[in-house]
Amino acid sequence: MRHPVVMGNWKLNGSKEMVSNLLKGLDAELKGVEGVDVAVAPPAMYLDLAEQLISKGESKIILGAQNVDVNASGAFTGDTSPEMLKDFGASHIIIGHSERREYHNESDEFVAKKFAFLKEHGLTPVLCIGESEAQNEAGETVAVCARQIDAVINTQGVEALEGAIIAYEPIWAIGTGKAATADDAQRIHAAIRAHIAEKSEDVAKKVVIQYGGSVKPENAQAYFAQPDIDGALVGGAALNAESFAAIAKAAAEAKK
């Protein structure tokens, strides 16, 4: 059975005080919670502080990051390598987020390179896929998701997805308050899994597919009740310890 993963993407939010309060609060809220992996991805500036706070806490929070470069070192101003992330204990690395694809012009091929580089360095890629509102209305959702996944499969083989995480995030639902219904999300997750199964049923059965896009404590249970939704990539609600922990607890309960 797949183990659920609930991950908080803090995006461009944070301060020393906020990171400290949020992680201490989360540690307290998650005490005794089992059956779900809980990860956080703070801005790179706060990885050191987050690592220290997590190491002192009792809950087993996984440290992640929001991006990585495709170079190990050298004259690449402003970039961060996999080894630097590992140096601070980060293991789950978000790549291909729609905000990176849109604002930084990251192509499917470039995201696939990041995926391969993370795997090469023993890190867990959290591969974001998803369609725009226009693509959704045109009935292109499954085709868009398949294309984004195929950028990895066609260059690295379907086995590359083993141990990785896929996060399906309909772009029109990110931070908008809109959200796909649980049934709609399940339909897309099942289609994504079926697409992978065309290459390998074994990989498809094992790969964790999260849902992301305005996930909140109020709707989390409905998502996690679906058989192909294995957790969540959470934005706004991850900035509140009580809300984020409630989502993690809902995943643990639903996937017992």
UniProtKB/TrEMBL annotation:
Signal peptide: none annotated. It holds the Pfam family TIM. It comes from Photobacterium lutimaris. Its EC number is 5.3.1.1. NCBIfam families: tim (TIGR00419). PANTHER family: TRIOSEPHOSPHATE ISOMERASE. Gene3D superfamilies: Aldolase class I. One of its GO terms (cellular component) is cytosol. PROSITE patterns: TIM_1 (PS00171), TIM_2 (PS51440). Its main location: cytoplasm. Involved in the gluconeogenesis. Catalyzes stereospecifically the conversion of dihydroxyacetone phosphate (DHAP) to D-glyceraldehyde-3-phosphate (G3P). This is Triosephosphate isomerase. It is found in: Cytoplasm. Homodimer. GO terms for molecular function: triose-phosphate isomerase activity. GO terms for biological process: gluconeogenesis; glyceraldehyde-3-phosphate biosynthetic process; glycerol catabolic process; glycolytic process. Keywords: Cytoplasm, Gluconeogenesis, Glycolysis, Isomerase. Belongs to the triosephosphate isomerase family. The active site is at 97 (electrophile), 169 (proton acceptor). InterPro entries: Aldolase_TIM (IPR013785), TIM_sf (IPR035990), TrioseP_Isoase_bac/euk (IPR022896), Triosephosphate_isomerase (IPR000652), Triosephosphate_isomerase_AS (IPR020861). It catalyses: D-glyceraldehyde 3-phosphate = dihydroxyacetone phosphate. Substrate binds at residues 9-11, 175, 214, 235-236. Pathway: Carbohydrate metabolism; erythritol degradation; Carbohydrate biosynthesis; gluconeogenesis; Carbohydrate degradation; glycolysis; D-glyceraldehyde 3-phosphate from glycerone phosphate: step 1/1. It is an enzyme of class 5 (isomerase).
